[in-house]
Amino acid sequence: MTVRTPDLSPQNPDWWRQAVIYQVYPRSFTDADGDGLGDLKGVTQRLTHLAALGVDALWLSPFYPSELADGGYDVADHRDVDPRLGTLDDFDALTAEAHRLGLKVIVDLVPNHTSHQHAWFQEALRAGPGSAARDRYVFRDGRGAHGELPPTDWQSVFGGSAWQRVPDGQWYLHLFAPEQPDLNWANEEVRADFRTTLRFWSDRGADGFRVDVAHALAKDLDEPLRDLGAPELSSEAALTEFAPGTHPFYDRDEVHEIYRDWRKILDAYTPPRTAVAEAWVPGARRTLYARPDELGQAFNFEYLQAAWDADALRALITSSLADARAAGASATWVLSNHDVVRHASRLMLPPGTDDNAWLLSGGHAPEVDEAAGLRRARAATLLMLALPGSSYLYQGEELGLPEVADLPTEVLQDPIWEQTGRVRKGRDGCRVPLPWTTSGPSYGFGPGGAWLPQPRSFAAYAVEAQDGVDGSTLELYRAALKLRRKLLDGETLTWEDDTPPGVLQFTRHDGWRCVTNLSDTAVPPPAGELLLSSAPLAAGGLIGPDTTAWLA
């Protein structure tokens, strides 16, 4: 087999096309100063872990000034660092060390909304109705005899009305928490400010951007505003009920003008800065954000949401590759992130299980076999890493961490819990701080405690418990990423049709083959040298259930 190593040098403008990007949720990664909250110095201290893991880049979830009404996505200043997490000098030091280690840095950009503590919003409250300051946001008069009713029936993603009234009687739009007022992207001052923000972080060494809620910036704000008629039509899931590009505030056609403008800025750097869209939209619409003259990539959430089923996965992989190719982009693959149940648990839930109901049960209805979940998660990871395109990993998945579903309600931080009237438990279970050591007050997360409690079971998952241990999940990730760099070439695959039911098998260049057994029966491997498997082969050298093998 010919060994090739991808060109990830600073001079290569296409380094991102088949890169592995590791998401760091800073507040839960490492706490350097002992206040219980992760920080930038903590991230810098642990960059050697990422380099040894073999990833190509780290994506930093928001580290901006924030009151944490939404885990840092309520941003009070898009061009500064939260004092609890460090300083701009700390960001510069992190970026310099990452680059020294050969790692790219991706910054999380939050353009749909600000914090209500942002200087602009505070100015808007003081300025009053009809002011230029209010035009940066979406303020409207209410309905009813005294303006006491919201301007429309639009609903927030986090539950309840998407409108909040202010003391002078007007209402402002917030598609998420009330502490997150939406910006008005029809306002040129808003657009200019984000151009400044893109240049600010690019000039400081950021290699690219992850764009939060990329599909919601453009909105139909022509009067009269449209009611939707039913609460569920405010959801991204309702996009299929509207002609493409016509929902009042999701995935409107006008949003692409914004990203074409951004691309001119990103391409002015050498190499060009990368970008990836968080856009919860159907595949054909998602790839519009990934066009070369826009952001270049978009997260494939359909893959994240796919059932553990061979036929469904094959169809989705095939369509995803075709969509990316048509857009001139590379495909993206992701199994976990800071918004969803960790895949070591999620993939074991029976089809049709409501994730929220499972979380509300503390993870007991149904019970999830952690060992079986880890086996399936490892198989899913090797499958994902064999696919053409970029893979996005979420911190802690290299340790095999399960969802912490039994967090007591009194410790929950996610605004979803309160905003839904304590009906939806929220996303805290995937954000519990990482375990680095097998002992200590926070398992090595910091010198003191952690902002969310860690279960005792985390000790067995700690980096210290797995480092150098043959067969551990950490060592599997290290081996897979090292091997992946040698094997990668091209962005295509060929399906092998002569496979047993419930088995996925495809070939990449030079005969590199990936076989994933999603069935309940062990199957014989194809001829070839076994390079790596997610679990030991079964008796007779068979590939067991919930196992992926790479062969040459």
TrEMBL record:
Q: Name one Pfam family in it.
A: Alpha-amylase
Domain Glycosyl hydrolase family 13 catalytic per the UniProt entry, residue ranges:
23-431
Q: Which UniProt keywords apply?
A: Hydrolase
One Gene Ontology term of the molecular function aspect: hydrolase activity
Q: Which SUPFAM superfamilies match?
A: (Trans)glycosidases
Family annotation (InterPro entries): GH, GH13_cat_dom, O16G_dom_2
Record's superkingdom?
Answer: Bacteria
Family stated for the protein in its record: Belongs to the glycosyl hydrolase 13 family.
Q: What is this protein called?
A: Alpha-amylase family glycosyl hydrolase
Q: Which organism is it from?
A: Streptomyces flavalbus
What lineage does the source organism belong to?
Answer: Bacteria, Bacillati, Actinomycetota, Actinomycetes, Kitasatosporales
